[in-house]
Specification:
single chain; mainly alpha; 5 helices
């Protein structure tokens, strides 16, 4: 989870696409706690660069439709 904090703290307009690609890989992890942390990281990236907020929101909405895990659903809604 430290890596997620580092990625989001280094988030700038120039590297946002790279960070989001990496987060897309992490979102498929088997650990619910980790996936929830990734969702929070996606929200931080969207806050840091509003130009990607629509695509981040679309990704979170997709997560809502594709999962039945209550923790992941709750994190998507809150983020």
């Amino acid at each position: 989870m430290l890596k997620l904090e580092i990625l989001t703290s280094l988030c700038e307009r120039e590297n946002v696409p790279t960070i989001l690609k990496e987060l897309q890989l992490y979102i498929k992890d088997a650990s619910t706690l980790f996936v929830c942390a990734v969702i929070r990281a996606v929200a931080k990236v969207a806050d840091a660069d509003p130009s990607v907020s629509d695509s981040c929101m679309t990704g979170l909405m997709h997560m809502l439709l594709c999962t039945q895990n209550e923790s992941v659903i709750a994190e998507c809604v809150v983020s």
